[in-house]
């Protein structure tokens, strides 16, 4: 986008000693070779420089044999040390290219400044041209690498020095043309002392001397330069200098200074002040005010002192600037002036620099007949007046730095406070104060200040919720509190309830001439048309934070292009950033963005399954949402294939593939990190698809997202997601997708202990698989049904189904699925007391899982194998298996499954006499079990640790754990653990002397085990 400003945090300074900055943090890029290589690349941005050129720059003609290798190594290290370095320095063909923007490198800003100055000079905008030249020249700190770069960089430095001196001469020409003369003499002599052969500077000095009434000195200066040139070069002065000499001799009227519209600055009478009043109830922002005042107090130099205050609309920029201005007013006694530059104003155009200069002059009392008619003349008078007075100037509501720059001059003792919704990155030498939202405590204090302490203290919880719903934005807080103050019969809770309706929240935050929506709309309408469209599209993103890849998919552009859009919106304070590479909307800005396109999403389907069409004009947004969902599907496919190798897929031949750029997902670690970070956004993406009626996206994306949800033990969300996918699949009439969704729902039901519902879902899924001749689906659903029946203690029914499932999976070569069913078969055998068969099944599962690299299934198999070994009394072997499981577990199993591994580890450690280690694992297992939300694991872990306490004489603790395990198991019908809990309580109660209760529980346990066909001797 040509309208999008390219701004980046990483800045490079090469005009002098090398510096690299990331915001306020200086980056050390490495040694001399690193600096020479990087500076050489930065001298020619966007151009490919071959390695041999970089070798020459680093070593001249003394390159070692390993020079090329060292350059490549230096580039690799630069990419690591510079934030975003891999995208900044790219490899192309035989060399490297630096993808910097002019704004990132001081040389780029210097070059751009010279270009703007030339354009302004041609257009007759002398004041602006001088300001731009001064700013460009201020970037110069010396030769490249402070003159230590070697012959190649020294040659480049010499060329740059020539450009600098030409700019200096151009600035002196402009200053002479605007009537400066005597004040230039000292500066010109300094430059001539450093560069005695520059005839242009000599001529400018002669002219300044002549116009100052020093004709003789001007002629003497010519004699000096003539003698110097003859002595040094054997030649006389050039034609231009000779002609100037003749004109000085003739006292030519052509050399007189041009007539200026204004000859002298204006001295105001009194001490004019146009500052707005300071808010009596100004609240918070102590750190920002202190920062601003501290900068003003300690800042060196000849000014102007510039403080740029930026923040989103309604963040309190003007209030803070006015508060600081009043506190600093006594230090700037000549005048304190405020002007609204109308950068973001309803039905208004931003003030031009000429109009602002006229307004400021009139504030000072300058008579109308002394104010020049032309804009340059007004600006020149203002700048000369500013240069001779100690004033405080508050430039409010600035659209960008180009609106401010012509009004500034150096040297001056004026303090300039600037407020803008945009980050003014190109306002050189400015101290920046960026305002975010208020801390919660300050938000509450602001509401109390406006509403009144008594009324606020009557509803403290509602006031805190009000602050949250206002997004801690000062304008929103003031409007909400003002509405309550005007309506004494309203409670705070009543307004909170009204604000909870996101669709109408902005409408509620409206009071008189103040409106959050109007404030945000002004920022929005100040964007270029392409950026406004991007803003609307980004408002559709369902997650809390968006990354550049997801944004690129949504906008239909590359990730790099999306970053430029996001960074621009960040600079305009329409986005926030809490972490590099990730962007977020403020809650109220999100509401505004969504309101711009509200109505586009489909409403829920009719009872007949027909979808209502999207509103007219929403096709673009619908396509953008489709691109985002296609991206999410492609990225989750890639990540899940890496993390869950061998998982079942579904035919997508009719579904278009994503053309979006995907993040780096080449390793298991990258896939795990990405899924972990994006999990909530992916959940929200399924909901977004559901709202838009994109049912195929719902079903396909849900089939991927359930994997990380299951891994993290987020089982209620797993079940809800599967239910949504089932409903979407039914609406589509896609039996294959419905079968997969039903199967996932059945698994979620099993894990949550909803066994009856799970059996119903798995039976429907199995029937569909058979009808579709889907052998893999048949194998999966037969196995899930067997698992559910096994949990209910119906082992005779479960066993043939599990065996059938394993046989089909073996025939299909579905090794991951077969390994999963083998662990389920091992669990059944172990609960049934058939431990040798349990060992056989679990051993096969472990071997299969390891062969395909499925670490999660290997951990499950090791755990089941350990259970079987414990049942056989082979405690040392079980301990070894559990050690392997713990080592592999990491982030590949859920907290609930990890709690079981730890509980079993505690049991074997205790039996091996490792009491301290056993106690530590007990504590860890219980802490995980408490948060797992998986009743089957809660029951199993509670029983294992209950038996541990009984063995160690802690009978009350054992009884409590077994009782809790019994509640969890009986609630879901997990008969094996229910019986074990009864037996455990009997043992504990017997030791506590409660023989009657112990006998009753033991008898109940015996009957339960008998009903399941489990020998009482094998029950524990």
Query: Globular, elongated, flat, extended or rod-shaped: what is the shape?
Result: elongated
- The oligomerization state is single chain
DSSP helix fraction: 55-70%
Low-confidence stretches: 1-7, 599-617
Task: Write down how many β-strands occur, each being a DSSP E stretch of 2 or more residues.
Answer: 16
Sheet with the most strands?
Answer: 5 strands, parallel
Helices, strands, pairings?
Blueprint lengths: L9 E4 L5 E4 L2 E2 L5 H12 L5 E2 H9 L7 H15 L3 H4 E4 L2 E4 L7 H17 L3 H13 L12 H27 L4 H13 L4 H13 L3 H19 L5 H11 L36 H13 L6 E7 L5 H12 L6 E6 L12 H11 L11 H13 L3 E8 L2 H4 L10 E6 L9 E6 L4 H12 L1 H6 L1 H10 L4 H13 L5 H8 L5 H4 L1 E2 L2 E2 H10 L3 H10 L7 E2 H8 L3 H13 L4 E4 L2 E3 L2 H10 L22 H25 L24 H24 L3 H17 L3 H18 L2 H18 L2 H17 L3 H17 L3 H18 L2 H18 L2 H18 L2 H17 L3 H15 L5 H17 L3 H18 L2 H17 L3 H18 L2 H17 L3 H18 L8
Describe the 3D structure.
The chain is of the alpha/beta class. A 5-stranded parallel sheet has the order 8-9-10-7-11, sandwiched between helices. Strands 1-2-3 form a 3-stranded antiparallel sheet, with no helix packed on it. A hairpin with a 2-residue loop joins strand 12 and strand 13 (514-515). The radius of gyration is 38 Å and the shape is elongated. Mean pLDDT is 86; it is low at 1-7 and 599-617.
